[in-house]
UniProtKB/TrEMBL annotation:
Residue ranges of domain LIM zinc-binding in the record: 9-69, 115-176, 216-277, 319-380, 416-477
Keywords (A to Z) from UniProt: LIM domain, Metal-binding, Myogenesis, Nucleus, Repeat, Zinc
Protein name as catalogued: LIM domain
Subcellular localization(s) per the UniProt record: Nucleus
Organism expressing this protein natively: Popillia japonica (Japanese beetle)
InterPro entries: Znf_LIM
PANTHER family reported in the protein's UniProt record: MUSCLE LIM PROTEIN MLP84B, RHO-GTPASE-ACTIVATING PROTEIN LRG1
Cellular component, GO annotation: nucleus; Z disc
Domain of life assignment: Eukaryota
Signal sequence, start to end: none
C-alpha cells in the first residue's frame, strides 16, 4: 500500500499547509503565525483583538470601519457617510421573504383572568418572567406605562394605580409638585397630580379603637398593642405612633427616650428640663436658681423620690446587710469583707461617703471606710503622716513619737497572731517573714528598732528579725578583717 502523507489544514490567507507548532486559530480557521495580522492595516493580532469575517482577519478598529454602522453619530463623522446598501449581507435566496411585523407569540396563549402577564394577558414562563407588584410580567412587557422604557428591578417603581413606571415618570405622575420640586413655577398647583387625578388617600389608624384591659394596653392611648407596632419602655408596650415625648411630642426611639419618674417618656432635653439638676451651671440660666432660701429638704420635696426601706425584709442573723440587717438581693448587692451590702448602705461609717470597690477600705472594726477616714483611724501617725499639729516639742529635743501597741481586742491563738505582740493581724497591715505574720508597726529590728521592709530584712536563727547591721554584729563572722579589730579574735 503506497504511503499517503497526512493532510494538514490550509491557511486561508496564503493557501499553504499549517503545522501545529505555528498555527493560530480564529473563526474556526487555522492561520500561520506570520499571516495572523489585520488585512487592512497589517497590525499583528492576538486572541484579544482579532475579528474574523469571511476567512479574513481584522483588528477591531478596522472591522468596525468596514462592517460596522455608518453615518452621523457612529464615530466616523460626516465624511464617513457611506452609500453601502448592505448587499454583501443580503440572503442569496430570493424565494424567502421577511416581514417586520412584531412577534406576538407570547400573547397567543391567553392565561386565565388575573394569572397571566398584567400587560398582555398571556402565560408567563419561568425563563422570561419579571416580578413586580407580586405578579409576573413578560420581559418584553416589563416597561414603563408612560414612556415605554424597559425596566429592571432597580429602576422599576410601582404606582398606586397598579401599574409600573420608571423613576422619572413616577415622579412626574405621583411625586410632590410645586415650587422646588423640579417642575418650575408654572406648575404650581393645589392638586396632587398634574392630570387632576385623585391622590391615594392616607389611612390614619385610630389606635384607641380596640381598648385593652386596664394596665395592659398602650400607656398613652389605652389601646391594644400588636407585635408589628410594639415599642417597649418602662416594661410596658407602646404604639409606635404613641411613643413620643409627653412635653414636646417629639418622636422617640430607644436611644433618645428617657423614662420619667411619673411613669411617662420624654426626650433627653425635656427630661433634663423637668427632672434634671437646676441652678447655676446646669444650662438653665439664672432664672432657675433655686438655692436661695431653700433647704435641701425643700428642694427634694418638689421632686418625686422613692426611698426604699432596706430593713423591711429581714434576713437571718449573719446573712443580711451588716449595716441594716435587711435581705440583700442580687440587683443591689455590694461585696466587702466577704459579706453582701446594700448599695444604699455601702458608704463610709464615718463620713457616709458613697463607696465602690476602689474606694472601700475594710477596717479592723468590721466596718468599711473611705481611704481618708481609714487613714485617720487606723493609719500610722506622727511626723510625715499628715498629723504634724499633734507633735509636741518645746525644748528643741526630738519629739517623742507615740507608737501605740495593737492591744485592741483579744489575743490571737498561739502561732497565728503577730510574732512580736501576739494580737491578730489584718490583711491591710500585715507583713510576712519566715512564714510568720507581723504588724506593720511591729516589723522592726529587735536591737535598734529600725523599721524594716522586704529589702533590708534579715531572719535570725532565734526567730527574730534584724536589720543588716545588727544581724552582722550578732550572727556574722568575727575576727581580723571583719570590722571587729585584732583584739576580738575568737574561735567561737
Amino acid at each position: 500500500m503506497p504511503f499517503k502523507p497526512v493532510e494538514n489544514p490550509k491557511c486561508p490567507k496564503c493557501e499553504k499547509s499549517v503545522y501545529a507548532a505555528e498555527e493560530r486559530v480564529a473563526g474556526g480557521y487555522k492561520f500561520h503565525k506570520s499571516c495572523f495580522k489585520c488585512g487592512m492595516c497589517g497590525k499583528m493580532l492576538d486572541s484579544t483583538n482579532v475579528t474574523e469575517h469571511e476567512k479574513e482577519l481584522y483588528c477591531k478598529n478596522c472591522h468596525g470601519r468596514k462592517y460596522g454602522p455608518k453615518g452621523y453619530g457612529f464615530g466616523g463623522g460626516a465624511g464617513c457617510l457611506s452609500m453601502d446598501s448592505g448587499a454583501h449581507l443580503s440572503d442569496p435566496d430570493p424565494d424567502i421573504t421577511f416581514t417586520r411585523a412584531p412577534l406576538l407569540s407570547k400573547a397567543v396563549i391567553k392565561a386565565p383572568e388575573g394569572e397571566g402577564c398584567p400587560r398582555c394577558g398571556g402565560y408567563v414562563y419561568a425563563a422570561e418572567q419579571m416580578l413586580a407588584r407580586g405578579r409576573a410580567f413578560h420581559k418584553t412587557c416589563f416597561k414603563c406605562a408612560d414612556c415605554k422604557k424597559g425596566l429592571d428591578s432597580i429602576s422599576c417603581c410601582e404606582g398606586p394605580d397598579k401599574d409600573i413606571y420608571c423613576r422619572v415618570c413616577y415622579g412626574k405622575k405621583f411625586g410632590p409638585k410645586g415650587y422646588g420640586y423640579g417642575q418650575g413655577g408654572g406648575t404650581l398647583q393645589s392638586d396632587c397630580y398634574a392630570d387632576l387625578e385623585q391622590a391615594p388617600k392616607t389611612t390614619v389608624i385610630d389606635t384607641a379603637i380596640i381598648k385593652a384591659p386596664p394596665g395592659q394596653g398602650c400607656p398613652r392611648c389605652g389601646g391594644v398593642v400588636f407585635a408589628a407596632e410594639e415599642v417597649l419602655a418602662k416594661g410596658r408596650p407602646w404604639h409606635r405612633k404613641c411613643f413620643k415625648c409627653k412635653d414636646c411630642t417629639k418622636t422617640l426611639d430607644s436611644i433618645i427616650a428617657c423614662d420619667g419618674p411619673d411613669r411617662d417618656v420624654y426626650c433627653k432635653t425635656c427630661y433634663g428640663k423637668k427632672w434634671g439638676p437646676h441652678g447655676y451651671g446646669f444650662a438653665c440660666g439664672s432664672g432657675f436658681l433655686q438655692t436661695d432660701g431653700l433647704t435641701e429638704d425643700e428642694i427634694s420635696a418638689t421632686r418625686p423620690f422613692y426611698n426604699p426601706d432596706t430593713t423591711s425584709i429581714k434576713a437571718p442573723p449573719g446573712q443580711g446587710c451588716p449595716r441594716c440587717g435587711g435581705m440583700v438581693f442580687a440587683a443591689e448587692q455590694q461585696l466587702a469583707k466577704g459579706t453582701m451590702w446594700h448599695k444604699k448602705c455601702f458608704n463610709c461609717a464615718e463620713c457616709h461617703r458613697p463607696l465602690d470597690s476602689v474606694l472601700a477600705c475594710d477596717g479592723p472594726d468590721k466596718e468599711i471606710h473611705c481611704r481618708a477616714c481609714y487613714g485617720k483611724l487606723f493609719g500610722p501617725k506622727g511626723f510625715g503622716f499628715g498629723h504634724a499639729p499633734t507633735l509636741v516639742c518645746a525644748d528643741g529635743a526630738a519629739p517623742a513619737i507615740h507608737n501605740p501597741s495593737p492591744n485592741s481586742g483579744p489575743k490571737a491563738a498561739p502561732g497565728q497572731g503577730c510574732a512580736r505582740c501576739g494580737y491578730a493581724v489584718y490583711a491591710a497591715e500585715q507583713m510576712i517573714s519566715k512564714n510568720r505574720i507581723w504588724h506593720k508597726r511591729c516589723f522592726s529590728c529587735t536591737d535598734c528598732s529600725r523599721s524594716l521592709d522586704s529589702t533590708n530584712l534579715n531572719d535570725a536563727p532565734n526567730g527574730e528579725i534584724y536589720c543588716r547591721g545588727c544581724y552582722g554584729k550578732n550572727f556574722g563572722p568575727k575576727g581580723v578583717g571583719f570590722g571587729m579589730g585584732a583584739g576580738t579574735l575568737t574561735m567561737a
